[in-house]
Amino acid sequence: MRALFIVNPKATTTTDRTREVILGALASELKMSVVETAYRDHARGLARQAAADGFELVLSLGGDGTVNEVVNGLLSTPEGLKRPRYAAIPGGSANVFIRALGVSGDPVEATGQVLAAIRSGREREVNLGRVTSDQDDRYFTFCAGFGWDADVVQQVEHERENGRKATPALYAEVAVKLFFGGDIRDPSLTVSTDGKVLEEVYFALVTNTTPWTYAGALPLQPTPASRFELGLDAFALTRSSYWLTGWVLSQMFLPKGLPARGDGYVTWHDQGSLRINSRHPRAFQIDGEYLGEREQVNFHSIPKALRIFC
Fold first, then answer.
1. How many CA atoms lie within 13 A of 267 on its CB side?
2. Among 26-40, 85-99, 178-192, which is the least confidently predicted range?
3. In sequence order, what are the beta bridge partners of 284?
4. How many CA atoms lie within 13 A of 35 on its CB side?
5. Half-sphere exposure of 104 (CA within 13 A, CB side)
6. Staple partner for 14: which of 56, 91, 127, 138, CB 3.0–4.6 Å?
7. Nearest CA among 223, 216, 289, 224 for reference residue 64
8. Cα 198 vs. chain centroid, distance in angstroms?
9. Residues facing 193 on adjacent strands
10. Taking a C-beta distance cutoff of 8 angstroms, is the pair 67, 139 a contact?
11. Residue 222 pLDDT > 70, yes or no?
12. pTM of this prediction?
């Protein structure tokens, strides 16, 4: 099988030695070409071109941002060409999409799982989310966020540009800082779904699976019923005080996740589409990648959009 292996050389949790082990294992069973990404969205262009270059399989080594770029590239395969299959090996700080699929967060162990799936032809078909706006037409694999969590993502990206690694500890540090000093108390958002409108929302998440993210080994589950095989779920914070918001966040760490109903928030389950508006530009992210500020974004569930070996 001809395979294109897209490697993010800045992947935060892999060393040169680990990458050599992974490359050796893959090359022993696949006819493989290896390309390292050099800039943002490079992986997207490489994945889009893969079919035209005759590749049957695209693999990636990187975090959720690399996965998102590859998925968007594959989904834009030119018409008339057979879209390559996909397999992902974790190399980031959270690896939410890969771990939600049941693949190990350890890159070497995950490589073994992926090769076993390729040998047996074991694939999984998953739904994706899609965001559209005046500035976007892009797929996401596990989550999109408006407000506080997007502010966290933006600040972490800034810290990485200044030389810090995107570790769970850094995310926690930034999240706490913005929790007390950011715009989490700004009720500018409106969520519209199923003909119903919810105004005065402080921040909102749209999920394609659970969890929303991980704090180290611990999953945070604001929408624990969310699944790759269903439509989109969503969470909206409707009251904002330090005590209440802290309590809501603490419930997300429970084994069963946040209850579907509770004080200070609203959730939706298995939605085909929804829309989020803001009275002024607010930070927006998908799959842990900051996209900039937005005032309106439409969300759609795309059934069986991606085939992946896992």
1. 20
2. 178-192
3. 146, 292
4. 18
5. 10
6. 91
7. 289
8. 25
9. 196
10. no
11. yes
12. 0.93
Q: In this structure, what DSSP letter does residue 147 have?
A: S
Joined together, the tokens standing for residue 246 give 């802290």
Mark 232-251 as b/e (b = at least 16 C-beta within 10 Å): bbbbbbbebeeebbeebeeb
What's the CA gap between 283 and 155, in Å, rounded?
Answer: 11
Q: Are 127 and 118 in contact (CB under 8 A)?
A: no
Closest residue by Cα to residue 68 from 111, 9, 129 = 129
Q: Nearest to residue 136, comparing CAs of 287, 307, 303?
A: 287
Q: Are 235 and 205 in contact (CB under 8 A)?
A: yes
For residues 4 and 50, the answer to whether their CB atoms sit within 8 Å is yes
Does 121 have pLDDT greater than 90? yes
How does pLDDT run across 158-190, given as a tens digit for each residue? 887 888 877 777 777 887 787 777 667 899 999
Q: How many CB atoms lie within 10 A of CB 15?
A: 10
| Among candidate residues 178, 58, 160, the one with its CA nearest the CA of residue 118 | 58
Q: Distances from the Cα of 143 to the Cαs of 22, 63, 111, 212, 288, in angstroms? A: 28, 14, 24, 6, 8
Note if the bond before 222 is cis, omega within 30 degrees: no
**Residue 197 pLDDT more than 90?**
yes
